[in-house]
Amino acid sequence: MKLPNRFVYKDADFVYDVAPGGEGRPTRFDQLLQSKWDEAMTSGHFWYKLDKLDTRMLAGKYGFVAQLNTKRANERRKPQHVTSVCMPFDGSIFNFTKLKEEEMLFSLKNANKVDNSEKEAEHWVVINVSPVEYCNSLLVPRLYSCLPQVLTPESVHLAIDTVLLSSSPNFRLGFNSLGGHASVNHHHFHLYYLQHRLYIETARVNHLWSECYEIVDYPAKGF
């Protein structure tokens, strides 16, 4: 059976309660992501097969997770030359509009929002051809709008939506900027499943206002 290429969700699909010690029943989003990603891996659309990774929890207060992934070190797309964390999009070099059709898993749309239905407004989940973990994919906000790798309020909202669509405590979503090891200057987030608890999940916070908190017990500052 051919899987859908568009995932339409409503606010009612959001999962707010996730048990840290176990797996909840997979949501429609989890099922689609895993099925499409497994299909792409079986079909050979990645640059290498993701084997079981040698993983260690580093000693110390924060217990950082370290993984040995030699294939990614040797078989990844060459990072683009970066001179600033804010650089204009350059359509003449590699970007996600140049992906092969089989590298594009599905688009995302919130049915509760009145969005522009044009192609430029479509958010996409695409494979990371050099995966770091199971289901490692890229969430590309407004893919055909050709946005640079800079966070926007809309993209942060989309990222939060995407996290809430999964019932798995292992589902992760992250952003790295230009100068922070992002290899492509085309707006994207990384997402994948990591079966290890992270210190930041329970790090101390200070309440600022409303539902905004400041992380106070972690090497990197954040909210």
Folded structure, characterized:
The protein has 223 residues and is α+β, with helices and mostly antiparallel strands. It is globular. The protein has one domain. The model has no long low-confidence stretch (mean pLDDT 91). The strands form three sheets. The protein has a six-stranded mixed beta sheet with strand order 1-4-5-6-8-7. The chain has a two-stranded antiparallel ribbon with strand order 2-3. It has helices at residues 28-42, 70-74, 153-164; strands at residues 6-9, 54-57, 65-68, 104-110, 123-127, 134-140, 171-174, 189-193, 205-209, 212-215. The chain is built from three helices and ten strands, in the order βαββαβββαββββ.
Shape: globular
Question: CA-to-CA gap between the ends?
Answer: 42 Å
Taking pLDDT < 50 over at least 5 consecutive residues as the criterion, the unreliable ranges are none
**Overall radius of gyration:** 18 Å
Range of helix content: 10-25%
| Largest sheet composition | 6 strands, mixed
Average pLDDT figure:
91
H and E string: EHEEHEEEHEEEE
Q: Counting H and I runs of at least 4 residues, what is the number of helices?
A: 3
Number of strands: 10
Query: How is the largest sheet built, in terms of strand order?
Result: 1-4-5-6-8-7
- Strand fraction equals 15-25%
Instruction: Count up the domains.
Output: 1
Structural class: alpha+beta
